[in-house]
Write a structure and sequence with these properties.
It is a single chain. The radius of gyration is 21 Å and the shape is globular. Strands 1-2-3-4-5-7-6 form a seven-stranded antiparallel β-sheet. Helix content is 40%, strand content 18%. The chain has eleven helices and ten strands. α6 (187-204) packs across α7 (255-262), α9 (289-301) packs across α11 (332-345) and α10 (307-321) packs parallel to α11. It folds into two domains: 21-165, no CATH class; 170-345. It has helices spanning 21-29, 40-43, 69-88, 136-148, 172-178, 187-204, 255-262, 267-287, 289-301, 307-321, 332-345; strands at residues 48-53, 59-66, 98-106, 114-120, 126-133, 155-158, 161-165, 170-171, 214-220, 225-231.
Length: 356
């Protein structure tokens, strides 16, 4: 197997882009913007942090944070309200038996998120949600995932605060190291899903999908086990200028998974799976055509990258799809819109991006 060499991916930390008035109008229209009793800034006022380790005693990169006693009771109630807004449109009557078990904070990555663990007092079932700084790139990434992927996402914004639901699944690196060669998994199904995930990321320009930024959802079926790969980090939506940054197959962290998958597929099958996913993306775009247009309108005007990165990616995409129309794109939003148009036109056979 000959794989393209991955481009260097070491980058400086991406800046946080504010949510513009145009994007805020969109979020309000579709009930993503809500009043919340807790903000990201309020959670930053913790008084103590204790390193959180896993079951084997290894550092998790998270700290469990502790607040002043006079603040803790009110904060816990407010976090329960946030969870109710996220899950049941604010109906507190059905979450009265829940309690906040732990608040964790992570300084790793761009979003420096808080993770809140919610526990059911009757059966000890637990759930999580995240509170982060509201970055326009991430918000666009979440909404594009909601509209163009097979996955639906709940999230809320409030000023400079972003609340996201937990995305369950096996982290990609854990799946690769411990699940990839299990006998109950059919290798060709894993390979098919990686091809489709690769295509989704490329069309909607979701970058940096290294193994620790996506999860694998394993679902037993009546004959074979099904696999779905889901993005769980949307910080690098439409920011980088390098074409390969939007193709998960080229990251060194995904090399073992990519090598495993390419051994299972013939080029003709790869083309089939790419075209299948393109067709599904277009169907989703058609079903949500008004909402997608309302989203891309502010995205085409917002500064969520730099001119040099936009120009670099614009030239690469124009060459890739053999379409001169890319030359008129002046923003990342315009490039996403042009990508959708490129697969809609379907010039010749789909371009194979995952080649055994």
């Amino acid at each position: 197997m000959d794989m393209l060499q991955p481009q260097a991916v070491a980058t400086k930390r991406k800046p946080t882009f504010p949510v513009s008035e145009g994007l805020r109008t969109y979020l309000t229209r579709y009930k993503r913007e809500r009043d919340l009793p807790v903000t990201y800034e309020r959670l930053r006022n913790f008084s103590e942090a204790i390193p959180l380790v896993d079951a084997e005693g290894k550092n998790t990169l998270w700290d469990t944070v502790i607040y002043r006693s006079e603040e803790m009771l009110a904060l816990n109630e407010a976090l329960k309200q946030v969870y109710a807004i996220l899950k049941v449109d604010g109906d507190l009557s059905v979450v009265s038996h829940l309690y906040v078990d732990r608040v964790d904070f992570c300084t790793f990555g761009n979003s420096t998120p808080f993770r809140i663990r919610i526990v059911n007092a009757y059966n000890d079932n637990q759930d999580y949600f995240y509170v982060k700084k509201a970055d326009a790139s991430r918000v666009y990434g979440l909404e594009l995932e909601h509209l163009l992927s097979p996955n639906r996402l709940n999230f809320i914004t409030h000023g400079t605060t972003l609340v996201e639901e937990h995305i369950p699944g096996l982290p990609g690196d854990l799946f690769t190291n411990h699940w990839l060669k299990r006998p109950e998994l059919r290798p060709v199904r894993v390979a098919k899903e990686l091809v489709k995930f690769n295509e989704r990321c490329f069309v909607r320009l979701l970058g940096d999908m290294r193994s620790y930024n996506f999860v694998c959802v394993v679902t037993p079926d009546f004959e074979d086990t099904q696999i779905r790969i889901r993005a769980m980090d949307f910080d690098q939506q439409s920011y980088d200028g390098r074409l390969n940054f939007y193709l998960p197959q080229f990251f060194k962290e995904n090399a073992a998974l990519a090598l495993f998958c390419t051994k299972q597929l013939r080029p003709e099958t790869v083309k089939q799976y790419i075209r299948e996913e393109q067709t599904l993306i277009l169907q989703r775009a058609e079903l949500a055509s008004l909402r997608l247009a309302k989203l891309l309108e502010p995205m085409c005007l917002d500064d969520i990258s730099t001119p040099d990165r936009i120009n670099m990616l614009r030239d690469s995409l124009g060459e890739h799809y053999k379409r001169c129309q890319y030359s008129t794109c002046q923003s990342m939003g315009a490039l996403v819109r042009e990508n959708i148009e490129s697969i809609r036109l379907h010039l010749g056979e789909p371009v194979p991006r995952f080649i055994p």
